[in-house]
Write a sequence for this structure.
């Protein structure tokens, strides 16, 4: 089978297409024929290092395809099932989705509804699971998402044109929240509106906090935060008491978060930092169930009409796909690995 591998950390140039032997699934494992692989920032950050590799690695955490073989003790999947995967490359260095087949534990595989495309299954894995976690960590909020779960709540999504921001907007709307979002340009504002945001604001405006407070006089319940460091001052201005900041990124930041103790003390602010790698399989599986339900309901969709443009590359050009993501292309980078049929 064809696979993209790298044997040392570095830029996109370390990626190469090679031939690998097909691996048989062991007990509790399934083999997935990958149709579409997706690129996320975590993929090229892992490829860049730091650190050294002890052997070859296959990049990309997200993908969707068809079950090709099942190992002993697997009863929940059968050959021919359409699926998407959870953090494939985190299972082992050679289990990433930038290859024609990958073998994973059944616990990292999720059934894809028949009327949902492989593109959606690959594109919304990490972004939607991150968004789901962000929307379910508030002390007074729901632990699961579905229609009405966030009814009566106001959610602020910073960076609403990014993949996680887009998923957060779509999921929050599906769950009944009033959604505000911040973006940097008119083009990104159009994408955020297409995703379903009720109010789209420019964070480059003179006083974004005043604009947010005018729309949410009692404060926002939850901030889905991509730029934790630079927005820490904004949080205390716009949060309601007992509000929550779910921080998954520090874009434009320094890696250090400085908080005003007194202001956050009197707000009873909750800061929840989140990354999928250590959140626990139970949280990932619960999120995957809700994300799959949202996909089935049409609440999560790709494309310009839903604010998430798609940029496609063939498997042989995985290095270019990584480069596009690394350079900050707006939208979702997908890799066509194998025909769907």
């Amino acid at each position: 089978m064809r696979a993209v591998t790298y044997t040392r950390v570095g830029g996109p140039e370390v990626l190469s297409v090679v031939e690998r032997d097909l691996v048989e699934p062991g007990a509790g494992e399934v083999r997935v024929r990958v149709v579409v692989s997706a690129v996320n920032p975590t993929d090229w950050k892992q490829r860049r290092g730091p650190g050294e590799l002890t052997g070859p690695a296959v990049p990309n955490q997200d993908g969707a395809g068809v079950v090709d073989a099942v190992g002993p003790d697997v009863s929940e999947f059968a050959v021919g099932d359409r699926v998407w995967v959870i953090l494939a490359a985190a299972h082992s260095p050679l289990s990433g989705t930038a290859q024609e087949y990958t073998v994973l534990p059944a616990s990292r595989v999720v059934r894809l509804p028949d009327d949902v495309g492989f593109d959606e299954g690959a594109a919304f894995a990490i972004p939607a699971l991150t968004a789901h976690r962000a929307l379910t960590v508030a002390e007074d909020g729901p632990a699961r998402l579905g229609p009405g779960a966030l009814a009566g709540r106001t959610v602020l999504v910073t960076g609403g044109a990014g993949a996680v921001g887009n998923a957060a907007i779509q999921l929050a709307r599906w769950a009944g929240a009033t959604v505000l979002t911040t973006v940097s340009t008119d083009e990104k504002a159009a994408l955020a509106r297409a995703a379903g945001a009720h109010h789209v604001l420019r964070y480059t405006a003179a006083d974004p906090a005043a604009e947010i407070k005018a729309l949410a006089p009692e404060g926002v319940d939850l901030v889905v935060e991509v730029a934790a460091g630079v927005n820490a001052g904004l949080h205390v201005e716009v949060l309601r008491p007992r509000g929550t900041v779910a921080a998954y990124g520090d874009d434009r930041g320094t890696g250090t978060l400085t908080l005003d103790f007194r202001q956050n003390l009197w707000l009873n602010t909750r800061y929840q930092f989140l990354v999928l790698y250590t959140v626990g399989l139970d949280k990932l599986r619960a999120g995957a169930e809700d994300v799959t339900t949202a996909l089935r309901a049409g609440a999560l969709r790709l494309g310009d009409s839903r604010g998430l443009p798609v940029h496609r590359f063939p498997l042989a050009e995985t290095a270019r796909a990584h480069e596009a993501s690394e350079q900050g292309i707006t939208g979702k980078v997908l890799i066509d690995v194998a025909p769907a049929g």
In short: The two ends are 17 Å apart (CA to CA). The chain has eleven helices and 15 strands. The first helix runs from residue 41 to 48.
